[in-house]
Amino acid sequence: MSKAAEKPEVVQLPADPPVAVPVGNRRAAAQRVREARDRLTSTSGTRPAFDRELVRQYAQTRISASYVVMLLVVATGLLFSFWLQSVAAAAWTCGMLCIHAAIIRNCARFLAEPPTKTPTRKWRTRFVLLDLLYGLCWAAIVIHPASYDVVSNALMMFLVMLVIAVSSMLAANLPIAALAATAPVTSGIAASFALSGKFDNYVLALLALAAEGYFALLAHRLHSTTLATLEARAEKDALIGELEQAKSISDEARHRAESANVAKSRFLAQMSHELRTPLNAILGFSEVMKSEIFGGHAVAVYKEYSSDIHNSGVHLLNLINEILDLSRIEAGRYELNEEAVSLVHVVADCHHLLKLRASTRGITIHEVFEQGMPRIWGDERATRQIVLNLLSNSIKFTPQGGEIWLKVGWTASGGQYLSVKDTGSGIAEDEIPIVLASFGQGSNSIKSAEQGAGLGLPIAKSLIDMHGGTFTLKSKLRIGTEVIVTFPPERVMSALAPMAEEAPPLQPEAVSAPTDEKRRPRNKPIMSAGTGL
Q1: How is domain 338-491 classified at the architecture level of CATH?
Q2: Which of 245, 252, 452, 519 minimizes the number of CB atoms within 10 Å of its CB?
Q3: Which residues contact 349 (CB under 8 A, 6 or more apart)?
Q4: Is the CB of residue 497 less than 8 Å from the CB of residue 523?
């Protein structure tokens, strides 16, 4: 019985299940994306999700500047105590401090509440009303009789502009609140100056109105800048959320692909064992019948049938072996059994094995080998499989009377290369990635009578990649195909002659008697050309 009938070794592949991506992470990422998109959805005026953020910044600004406002109110009350009665100035100061305390208290309450507990519109309305009351109180103190002198009017104008500036900056995140806090003060002081009937006061009234417009415009610009910043931050959050969602989806797809690959590898390993077990019996008994060990066939055609059965079984066994090798490589379970290998000898042996097959098709194979090439450090079985796959493909797709060139030589970097070139039908340029993929076949391969599984080139490419080499396929339709496989320089072994042993020291009596050994030169190490070692 043939070697093909021996019982194969069962290959165990890794059985660790892949780790699944938690569904909660994907849901959290999707929720963040939805929230970011909601913040970017515009309804009217400002974006709805930005309203609370603007009110929050308004409240924080008010609380952070509370001591400044208190100092301004107390200083204003002391200043006006010189023009008004002390009791009236003290009452105004206490009223302003109470209104300011109410504003600060509401701001603190707003910041302490959860975002979804109270509508933002209600708080915004409350703050606008409080700022309006705040502005009316300022207007009550700045409205004065027209009998004040120029210095008093200038001092009053300075105070009004200071109040407008502070109120506009504090309430810039809520433009309506800023207008409610400054409009009463500006209207009151402008009306007071206009009713005096003096030209200087008219100028001061216009100046107050101009200051109101300027600070209103400044507050609007600050509000626009803040809103643009919030929009940019929301867009960034949306982008980060989408990236996280895409990453979670890709991780899940990768784990599914790994799970499918492991399942495929298990299936191939199991099926290869299950198929090879009955196939061994088919090969063994068909070889017995083909060889007529127990006697000749009564009908001669039965011998041909037995030969066909045996050849088909060998073809199926080779196909199973190729599938199993590919599954090993993809699963990372293929290990190289590295040793010193002569690439020229391996190519010559493969040529000898397939020479009969090529001659029956009228194909001539030319050998172009460089002489004196050192060995390479690699897996002889894998190297032989690479050469057999490439050469059998060339024989398969080369027409009658074609030619094949086998070349082995040095690369420019000091490595070694193997080239298999034929005059076959060739491969279209757009089909080269297809034939290099697992189970991929070109249009010429599909039309050919000798169809294969499309695993020869992918296995050869994977094996040379494991050796750290390169795999290059060049082909043109109706001209031919050339496959170049290179081994890196670090796998080339230098051929060194054995070092001569050091001679023992000469004895005095032997000095006067020279021999042939003393006249013989020592051996020198010989470096192989092109190795770079």
Answers
A1: 2-Layer Sandwich (3.30)
A2: 519
A3: 384
A4: yes
